[in-house]
Amino acid sequence: MKRVRTLLVLLLCTALSLALGSCVTAGSGSSQKVRLYEGQIRAINIDKCGLKPGTCEGSITLAIADGGQEVTLAIKPQTWLKRGDQFVTIDQLGVGNYVKVEAVQLSGQLLLRWLYVF
After folding, report:
1. 62 and 73 in contact (C-beta within 8 Å)?
2. What three-state secondary structure class fits 72?
3. In terms of C-beta density within 10 A (0-12 exposed, 13-18 middle, 19 or more buried), how is residue 71 classed?
4. Are the beta carbons of 58 and 45 closer than 8 angstroms?
5. Cα of 22 vs its chain's centroid, Å
């Protein structure tokens, strides 16, 4: 009986360590490099919108503050856009807004993760 209990504890510990190991590797699986951008919005393109606020998707063209180059960033639904203490939607952004942006490269496009409007 003691052997069965020892074997059961060993199997449970092994299963727990495998489960924790897969959770850790699942969370760190994305090797995309996060890029930070800062500059002015030059253009806003809204591709489609749902019925609820925050369900629009599209892209913005950003003129980078240091260097004058432009970059286009894709915006998916539910992306965090923030102005002060309030969350805003893509249709509330304006050309000329000065923003700070965090984006990642996914499948050939820069995907916006969050945006802060000044």
Report:
1. yes
2. strand
3. middle
4. yes
5. 22
Dihedral (CA of 87, 36, 109, 42) sign: positive
Instruction: Work out the number of other CB atoms within 10 angstroms of the CB of residue 47.
Output: 11
Whole-model pTM: value is: 0.64
Amino acid code (one letter) for 112: L
Closest-CA residue to 78 (of 107, 115, 110): 115
- As a whole number of angstroms, the distance between CA 33 and CA 6 comes to 45
* Other beta carbons within 10 Å of 60: 24
Cα–Cα distance measured from residue 32 to residue 102, given in angstroms and rounded to the nearest whole number: 12
Kindly report, residue by residue over 40-63, the tens digit of the pLDDT.
999 999 898 888 877 888 889 999
